[in-house]
Write a structure and sequence with these properties.
The protein has about 200 residues and is mainly α. Helices cover about 55% and strands about 0% of the residues. The chain folds into 2 domains: about 1-35, no CATH class; about 40-185, no CATH class. The longest helix has 20 residues, at about 120-140.
Length: about 200
Amino acid sequence: MLRIAFKALHPGRPPPLASPGFGIAPFLWRAFALPIGSNANTRSHDWPVRTGVLILAFALLLMRTPLYFIDPQLWAEDGTFLLAQAYASGWHSLLAPIGGYLLLPARLVAFAGNALPLAAAPWLYFYVATAVLLLGVWLVTSPRLDLPYKPICALALASVPAGFEIFGGLANSQWALALAAFNLPFMRPPESKIVLAM
């Protein structure tokens, strides 16, 4: 009976697996089963879903690596290459390769970190790497990107296996930055001239 009523009220939408009720179940159904931003009428309702997915991704990161949020440490290349070379060489370190490739975004953060006390470097590196990963989550859920099951794809960024090695390291944040940049060519052009956080 509820499926018939749902079809009458929402033509063109698939009926939910369970009857719509109170609590988080309707939000989860809408977030994970329905496309985000399929037309202009639903885009105003995308912000709660996108924000919920972003908060859930942050919660996943917090559950998987809680000590990084409390006491971040420099990880491998962050200390031996990025911090040491930025401190010793200044802006000359921006184009120095590590292992045969350039880490320009990470080097820019390390260079900007020279203005802070040395003890703040692990905090800066960790939270910039986390922000890059959450930027990827935000871009995947964009209404301008036509992708099925966008929330699941976005949460996959925060739930990759062996995350302790790649979450929170500034040098290792290049994979999240590459996936975030990969979405940009596939997005529809913005409808407004000023696009904030789309």
